[in-house]
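Running low. Any example?
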Amino acid sequence: MSSRFADLGSRARGVPGPPDFALVGLLRIPEAQSSPWISLTRRVMFAVGLLCAAAIVVYIGRDGYRDSADETVTLLDAFYYATVSLSTTGYGDIAPVTPSARLVNIFVITPLRVLFLIVLVGTTLAVLTERSRQALKIQRWRRTVRNHTVVVGYGTKGRTAIDAMLGDGVQPADIVVVDTDAVSLEAASTAGLVTVHGSATQSDVLRLAGVQNALSVIVATNRDDTAVLVTLTARELTKKAKIVASIRESENTHLLRQSGADSVVVSSETTGRLLGIATTTPSVVEMMEDLLTPEHGFAVAEREVEPSEVGGSPRHLSDIVLGVVRAGVLVRVGEPSVDALESGDKLLYIRRAR
């Protein structure tokens, strides 16, 4: 696997690398699941179409064919010839000569033969077709993927972060999951997410996930040292993407900041604070969970300041404003610097979830 990523990295740097079909199994593009009966029906209809096309070709050129029975080639004869030819039967010493016998051969024997061929080679054809389709989808996806979110780690934190994004209206096709666990990646693919199998500490894996064109990166690993290394690698590949990382110990916050993380969430301390608050004021914890769940109740959202609101105070708006983002810096409501809103400011406010 490491050699495949090395070849991928060479191609990313301008050196020819492996074709897209070599990435099948590493990069997986989800697709809608259909009934096996629908797939089987499509294959049978395609075979019938080939049979009709072959019969028409034979009938148009019937002057070049000879029937040993009556010296003429009718439309029925053309279908019969196409049937025995496409099925590679090739009758020689024994052949039906009456119309009824040929009808039976066309409508009974041949469908049975086709079903036998489907059972015999269907699995091999399905595997080859799936690999070809995945290779084409990978090629198309890598050409068009832009402004997406890369989530490193599909554990509890990663899944919860993705659920929050989906609740805010982010499309599953705009999320790429990177993980080393095949079971987790299978669950992510079932949820309609693009997946990449590999360690995000390797730059070639992040390139495969399109980090260089990503809008944001979420680092949700289980170890703080891994989070630091992933953040360093991601920041080396992209300067514009917003990197949000989760760690267990607050003493490692400065390491992530120095590595290029824009936001750091200390999971253990945040959970501990909520546990402590819940012992005295559980309703506060309930409200916090409500604000962090965008699917129902209330949610914290961000919006641009409207032209009619410029010059006014955020405390006088109909929305409950918590803070103002000015020049990329969050200022809490009540500070004198944000008593008068300016054009280009963003408001953090509480909205009712849809």
